[in-house]
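The following block was generated as part of the benchmark described in Methods. Ligand: protoporphyrin IX containing FE.
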Amino acid sequence: MGVTPPFPAILPVVRGRPLLGSAPEMVTTRLRPFLTRNYQKYGPVYGISAVGMRFVVLAGPEANLFVTKEGHKVLRSEEAWRQNDIEMGARRSMISLDGELHRKYRRVESRAYSRSYFGENLRAALEVTAEDLTPVHAGDTFRVPYWSKRVITEQLARMTVGGTARPYLEDMLTFVQTTLMVTTTKQLPKVMLLQPKVRRAKARIFKMVDDLIAQHRANPAEAAGRAPNLIDDVLAAEKTDPELWQHEDIRIAALGSFIAGMDTAANSLSFLLYRMHKHKEYLPKLRAEADALFAAGPPSAEALGRSPLLHTFVMETLRVHPIAPAMSRTLTTEVEFAGHRLPARTNVIVGTTVSHGLDQFYPNPDQFDPARFGPERAEHRKPGAYAPFGLGAHTCAGSGMAEGLIMLNAAAILHTLELELDPSYQFKEIARPTPSPADDLALRVVGVRHPVSSLFEA
Ligand code: HEM
């Protein structure tokens, strides 16, 4: 981050703790309630400081509408993500770019993250789910966060880069989580990147991706008679614009689905599994939907999206447990927002999910209630009310893939297993760096409802 201009004179400023400022509240598990409390106290714009850094928060529906309309003209992503590129050995990546270059990268990379691409590769994703459900038996303990990470990471590997992440799961988690916690959320000191296990993980992951890139070069999709994936798309772009795509940039692009999608989608799936079994009155209906989905073999992506209760459950889970509660940006120019003039170079935090906790949109917002998203109430439809996938130019490029994977895995679990949450379990969240249920979240396998093979049988 660059030098932060002083706060404008009349801006309300949150009083933080001595030296630390509001840093302890900026951990991702505490950020949304903190930004929401201060939105309710000060309105849509206020200042906060954290260990000597100043940020201006733009929050609530006002901020969401402002970013949607004006964000591409006045907000820059580079400062927030540059350190991550450097640590990943790249010159640039989709998320750290702005303007025309960002649009170019996004055009190339987003096809392999899209809903339709997910639909074309659904069977490959379901094969991974099946592999990881097969060893589960009645009486076992189903470790929710571990199972979700293992399955989603492998699904992303097979679908987006045509490889396997099985031998690299621990390396992938160690490298990506530590790097993001140092460079992006800044909750760990830089020295953590020097730990031997992080350096070893980085070397192994880079080798895995470099080998995949080499294999794709040697066997282009068309010649090999297979459908192109993310690496093929990037290599095709390199051919037309070699200066834009040097090896390091291709490598970070190939790692993109893991950096952006592994923890985000897995943690959301874990929250969903927790919610489905905590609010167990919904389970009979959820199981009936899942059984109908698999009645004639694997469902289509469209059928998954049309499952009314499962879909609203996912939406409500993303409202209550958004894994990216806010976005970090820099103002490229002076702007006027909610009656305040903010100078160029101001570090802003856009509290995109503050609206998720406001009574004006979601009556009784702390209550988990999937019916909010049903056609009668559609509480999320009001402008600026719902943004679990961010807003503006950098809105999640993988939202279609994420929703598809989360719903597919949840439906397959509902169809095959009867799981139960211990009623005495005390739910805890951790920030690594995105919010996740704590590692001890587990469900008891009461029984097997249908064999895993039934996921594929017509
Ligand atoms: C429920 C799961 C997910 C959530 C809630 C989520 C949320 C987000 C958010 C909020 C952003 C914007 C970050 C910012 O502006 O600073 C983002 C960006 C992005 N996400 Fe996701 N994400 C999820 C899963 C995924 C998956 C599975 C993929 C890919 C396989 C993915 C790929 C991306 C990419 C490539 C970007 C950068 C887009 C750009 O810079 O233009 N995400 N995501």
